[in-house]
Amino acid sequence: HRADNGPFNSRRQLLKVPRLGPKAFEQAAGFLRIPAAKQPLDASAVHPERYRLVERMAGDLGCAVAELVGDAERTRQLRLDEYVDGEVGRPTLEDILAELAKPGRDPRDPFEVFHFAEGVETMEDLAEGMRLPGIVTNVTNFGAFIDVGVHQDGLAHISQLADRFVRDPAEVVKAGQKVMARVLEVDLPRKRISLSLKEG
């Protein structure tokens, strides 16, 4: 389509793409950014189905939509509760305002690169007492499995998850959590690693 028609000038042009129906447009339009579009919201993460709402907000503030985009001071003047209705709740409105205040922001949390301990690549590299960074891979009713970078997850038994009594492992750890684990025991023949998350 772009080869025949050139670059998109608006999100609405997506509707002219063969075999891209209204439902696909609804699901995809919010992810497409058109930097030089006449409609300033086409360059933002605001979904086209919310353009009228933003136009109403701009009207209530006595400004054009283009003046509202990127003006955090102006967006703070809006009273969100005045725009909550059966279709749009407060969380959606907060997302819209955040995008208007800082267009193009990435709503995801900053990505942190995780590093396992250097020189520890196999179970043979482990020694009792070592403290290693790890990531919780699974939480069960008897403890948590933790990847410490040796291609075999270790187990921190429920009794080793904290310096206090733990009734439910999910109270103190969750899958994906970064932890510092101490090696209690390495059983090479059975390929088992016992770990502790206790501080003391």
Tell me, what is the CATH class of the largest domain? Answer: Mainly Alpha
C-alpha Rg (nearest Å):
26 Å
The run of helices and strands is HHHHHHEEEEE
DSSP strand count: 5
Q: Into which percent range does the helicity of residues fall? A: 10-25%
Distance between the termini: 64 Å
How many domain modules? 2
Please give the CATH architecture of the largest domain: Orthogonal Bundle
Question: Which topology of the largest domain does CATH recognise?
Answer: DNA polymerase, domain 1
Protein model, in words:
Helix content is 21%, strand content 17%. With 200 residues, the protein is of the alpha+beta class. Strand 1 and strand 2 form a beta hairpin. The radius of gyration is 26 Å and the shape is elongated. The mean pLDDT is 93.
Brief summary:
This protein is an alpha+beta fold and 200 residues long.
Fold blueprint:
Blueprint: H1 2-5, H2 22-28, H3 51-61, H4 65-68, H5 72-75, H6 90-101, E1 131-140, E2 143-147, E3 154-157, E4 178-187, E5 192-196
Task: Note the main attributes of this structure.
OB fold (Dihydrolipoamide Acetyltransferase, E2P), alpha+beta, single chain, 200 residues, DNA polymerase, domain 1, five-stranded mixed beta barrel
